Amino acid sequence: MKKQLIILSAFFISMTVFAQKDELKTAEKAIKSNDFSAAMSAINQAEGLIANADQKDKAKFYYLKGLALYQNGNPNADIDKVGKAFNQLINYEKETDKLKYSSEIGTLINKMIVAVADNATKSYSYAIESKEDADYLKAAKEFHQVYLLSPRDTSYLDNAALVYYFAKEYDSSIKLYEQLLDLNYTGIATLFVATDKETKEDVVYGDKKSMDLQVKLGLAENPREEQKESRREMIFKNLAQNYSDKEENEKALEIISKGRLEFPNSYSLLIDEANIYYKAGDNAKFKVRLEEAISLNPTEPTLYYNVGVMNMDQKNIDEAIKNFKKAVELKPDYADAYNNIGAAIIEKAAPIIEEMNKSLSDFKKYDKLQAQQFEIYKQALPYYEKAYAYNKTNISTIQTLMGLYENLEMVDKLNEVKAVYDKLKE
Asked: How far apart are alpha carbons 246 and 240 in whole angstroms?
């Protein structure tokens, strides 16, 4: 009985092998006749039988599957499936160290890569002009397709992740950025660059050999190697921005935290973290991060300006003025900072005005308080005038100036500024 079972098993294996070979022959004939639907039907039949096939038949199966999906370069072919099938064959032949079909398939993949990459670049250029989400989405999918065709070209995965973000497809962008982090992608690469003698434009070559050949032929000059900087810090930034735009601020902060562990001196990540805290309404942590950023970049005027704003919100008036003055010291034409110095000084008049409102029947006290009020206005006036000098279209600054001139009875100045105001309001 056992002997009979062994014979039957061998019989079934033999039948399976014959069936699998028949399906492969059917698929091969269908491909030659451009009947790709019939070819895929045969491939699907063979797929369930291929597990027990030898190396030769397995390789042929992967080869025919790729050709059936490729459809002789049909632009409507499913590029994702084509890339997966072709790369499955190449990987299998590498594993078995028998490269029968890889060269042919590699040529087809390269043709597809060039075509799809060209389409992606054109689609992206169009999207930049149209600014339409749908156009960005089309470009993103095409960049992703290039990567699926050639997984070693991770820069296209990076491109796809970024353009998905532009398309507001945040989940797709997040998925690809997380994949890039898992791959430990950095984007660091050596570029081989030479100047075309005819056009005088720089050309990037695929490798040093290609560049040197063009130079040797006298078609290019000034050959050089340039290093592309790491993209990893930017990946953390962009991934966090995706989560932030999805209103998932905690997740965004988690990503920024991971990024800052890798890049502890990153000013850019620190600013992003500050902005996320601001968006989340945590002004205290926003201010702390800005002060930390100042320690990393003490010559950036906007940092002092923003810390000044935070101090204003917290009623730390003298500290706010100090920061705004530092901002204009670093940027002498910083109109908004001059405006805010004036606003901070005027804030000091608030308790005086409150006391004046309580002293309406005490004329002597009222006049004394008003004199103090006007003295504060006189201190604020030069800063508003500076703000106006550097930005003559800010309605808020002009209105405040008009009020100050009126209170201080500076009629000529009032009329001059009012004329500008009236013109802007037309």
From this structure: 10
Answer yes or no: is 223 within a domain.
Answer: yes
Sign of CA dihedral 202, 203, 207, 210: negative
Alpha carbons within 13 A on the beta-carbon side of 151: 13
* Per-residue pLDDT tens over the stretch 227-259: 778 899 999 999 999 999 999 999 999 999 999
Measured CA to CA, the distance from residue 267 to residue 95 in angstroms comes to 45
List Cβ neighbours of 102 (8 Å cut-off, separation of 6 or more): 89, 90, 93, 94
Residue 377 belongs to domain with CATH number: 1.25.40.10
Is residue 278 within 8 Å of residue 244, measured between CB atoms? Answer: no
The DSSP line for 218-273 is: TSEEEEEEEEEPP-HHHHHHHHHHHHHHTT-HHHHHHHHHHHHHH-TT-HHHHHHH
* Same domain for 308 and 224: no
- For 128, residues 6+ apart whose C-beta sits below 8 A from its C-beta are none
Coil, strand or helix at 33: coil
Task: Look up the pTM and report it.
Answer: 0.71
65-96 per-residue burial string, b: 16 or more CB within 10 A, e: under 16: bbbbbbbeeeeebebeebbbbbbebbebbeee
| Domain range for 39 | 14-100
pLDDT for position 115: 87
Stretch 154-168: mean pLDDT, rounded? Answer: 96
Q: Residue 194: pLDDT above 50?
A: yes
Per-residue pLDDT, averaged over 43-72, amounts to: 78
Query: Do 408 and 307 share a domain, yes or no?
Result: yes
**Domain count of the chain?**
3
Give how far Cα 159 sits from Cα of 116, 129, 147, 176, Å.
Answer: 13, 18, 10, 10
- In a domain, residue 153? The reply is no
Domain boundary among 66, 100, 134: 100
Using CA atoms of 279, 281, 287, 292 in order, give the dihedral in degrees to the nearest 10: -50
* Start-end of H helices in 99-220: 102-130, 133-149, 154-166, 170-182, 208-216
Is 217 a member of any domain?
A: yes
Alpha-carbon distance of 397 to 405, in angstroms, equals 12
Residue scoring higher pLDDT (132 or 212): 132
Take residue 420 and report the two structure tokens written for it.
């500008």
Q: Are 194 and 214 in contact (CB under 8 A)?
A: yes
